[in-house]
Amino acid sequence: MMYTQLDIEQNRKKTGRELCFMLLAALPFAALAVAAFCARIEPLCMAAVILCGGVMILLWDLFVSPCLRYARYLSDVTSGLTRRTAGTVVRLGEDRVFRDGVWFNELILNIYEDLSEEGEQRYLYDCAKESPAALVGKDVALTSHGNYVLDLQPLRAEGAEEADHA
Length: 166
Hints:
166 residues; 28% strand; 5 strands
């Protein structure tokens, strides 16, 4: 499987680091706001509060929120229903796709033996994971949650299976 408990733990640690970074970056402005409030310097206090809030909103949107969305995605795909599909990887998309707060690349799988266009199915694989470029044109067993790729294993040829049993 592409996702393990280690991925969840790494994301949890990264979320904690980004949250600490956000709070530390806003701390000087918060301290300035408190000092200005105690000294009764209203314009400085207001400016410091606005800057503190602006820094927190900016860093939340840039760093913390993507980690939380990825954690939600990991939770969904590791605990939801899965489906296995056999087919041939026809091509990989070149453009990235933003969906449910996570960046993906497209993977087109054809489930028909004659590789007609009607058998093509679109799946999304995580940009943070290794690209399956080596599997283009090969038969694979794809495990998915919805249209998110969870695992991609090459199918062995029948001749190779007979050689293994001999």
